[in-house]
């Protein structure tokens, strides 16, 4: 293939991924007549833009559902997210140290925590930072790092290094999809690695996900679900998926609009 510009090359990589599913760095390097390092930069750019999901070994795969930006997701399932956020906020006790993930549902939780006094909140998400930035009764720690524009969350080695310096009473995780067999789904392996590290630093782990995310497998990066974690969702959740999660030792909480949750199962 003759030499082409970087934008055109990236567009063709996306097209190839759509039709062939997977391609190695070496194969793409030979196809486009560029170095492997150039292809890696292309893949990193496409991943950051949400157009591709990376897999191990330098391969990549395109999701059939391109990653939506946080701005696009804010208005989705609004009432369900509010109910989930209210229930989650009710679990928090004065004096606790919390860890909040990025994402719109966890951002809704951060807003609910504005009236909770004497807590420490560490977060990887800009939404949570914005919700709590002016609250004097909440001590806020930002786990910085590399910002993913689509998710408005920090990832990478700097985030992971900061995480190693703290432990938490509770961690609240977001997700793009949940599979009882595979776990928590995200577009980027950096996100799923970080979620796994976050969960390991907390006494209690909660996954906040409205019903439409249950059973979804939009991407190819996963954080395994662990026994003892709690999924918080809403009344539209598919009973079969909830049953499969409970069979794996995950507690499920189903919330209703206006904060009347069904008891944990």
UniProtKB/TrEMBL annotation:
Alphabetized GO MF terms: DNA-binding transcription factor activity
Record Gene3D superfamilies: 3.40.50.1360
Pfam families: DeoRC (PF00455), HTH_DeoR (PF08220)
Protein keywords: Transcription, Transcription regulation
Transmembrane segments: none
Keyword Transcription regulation: yes
InterPro entries: Carb_Metab_HTH_regulators, DeoR-like_C, DeoR_HTH, NagB/RpiA_transferase-like, WH_DNA-bd_sf
Domain of life the protein comes from: Bacteria
Keyword check for Repeat: no
Cross-referenced SMART domains: DeoRC, HTH_DEOR
PROSITE patterns: HTH_DEOR_2
Domain HTH deoR-type span(s) in chain numbering: 6-61
Protein name (Swiss-Prot/TrEMBL): DeoR/GlpR transcriptional regulator
Naturally occurring in which organism (per UniProt): Streptomyces spongiae
